[in-house]
Amino acid sequence: MKPEYDLIPEDHPLLKKIYRIIYFSDTPAGKLFDILLLVFILISSILVMLETVPVLDVKYHKFFYQIEFFITVLFTIEYLLRIFSIKDKNEYIFSPLGILDFLSIIPFFIGLFFPAAHFFVIIRMLRMLRIFRILNLADYMHDGQFIMSALRHSSRKIYIFLLFLCIFIIIIGGVMYVVEDGKNGFESIPQSIYWAVVTITTVGYGDVSPSTPLGKFISIIVMLAGYSIIAVPTGIITSELRNRGKSEKLCGRCQNKENDNDANYCKRCGEKII
């Protein structure tokens, strides 16, 4: 969201004041507003969790509903104020924060017709990320952007790895279906694929397990492969994180650009970096 205050016409001083309070934390009123917002988000999320406890829900259902209704009304008013107080309304509505704010209130209203959807209001917890802005934790936000940048730059490698993993799991599922002859929980290839996913991720629920010697041998291979497979995306992301911390200054001799920011000499060939 742009920080310029001239996004609001000068002939609307009230909207300009509301805009500064709800979009910024550089005033006592703005900081108080954001802190209260976080408190209501936390209360709402706790109430949703408590509603799923049968004993508490039976005893306090009406109370939970009333509090949740009140908080949702406040969030709805806040959402509308954010729209009305900014000149470029689409900038907020279609921004990540605007979409998140909308998703945090719409489940309650959908829940009036489809009760189970009500519990999706737990998505409001994502709005707790505003605490970084409220407490001026800019360094933490920078670190978060650093990690996201590394994930974006390594996404192609991860996609290729996931494609290979899906192919491997499907093949293993098909092989186990044949080896176990459709027995011992391997009634179908999809069920066998489920077993392959559980095994290769080293979760091991144990609800499906092979009984034939060949099936057990394949299981051992899949289990051992699981450890190495889990390490692959970790290595990809770690390597990208390391490279993100390197300078983009090229070495004049070997063209290496993976040097530390404070390096005076190239780490590959030893050439002095100018």
Overall description:
This protein is mostly helical and 274 residues long. It has two domains: 131 residues, Up-down Bundle (Four Helix Bundle (Hemerythrin (Met), subunit A)), CATH 1.20.120; 97 residues, Orthogonal Bundle (Helix Hairpins), CATH 1.10.287.70. The chain is 64% helix and 1% strand. It contains ten helices and two strands; from the N terminus they run ααααααααααββ. Strands 1-2 form a two-stranded antiparallel sheet.
How would the blueprint of this fold be written?
Layout: H1 13-23, H2 28-51, H3 54-84, H4 89-93, H5 96-111, H6 131-134, H7 138-153, H8 155-179, H9 189-200, H10 213-244, E1 246-247, E2 259-260
Antiparallel strand pairs: 1-2
Helix and strand content put the structural class at mainly alpha
- Termini separation (Å)? 39 Å
The number of distinct structural domains comes to: 2
Order of helices and strands: HHHHHHHHHHEE
Instruction: Record the strand order, biggest sheet.
Output: 1-2
Share in helix: 55-70%
Shape: flat
CATH class identity of the largest domain: Mainly Alpha
Mean pLDDT: 81
> What's the β-strand tally?
2
Number of helices: 10
| Main pleated sheet | 2 strands, antiparallel
Stated plainly, the CATH topology of the largest domain is called Four Helix Bundle (Hemerythrin (Met), subunit A)
Q: Strand portion, in percent?
A: under 5%
Known CATH architecture of the largest domain: Up-down Bundle
User: Radius of gyration, Cα only, in angstroms?
Assistant: 27 Å
Unreliable segments (pLDDT under 50, ≥5 consecutive)? 1-6
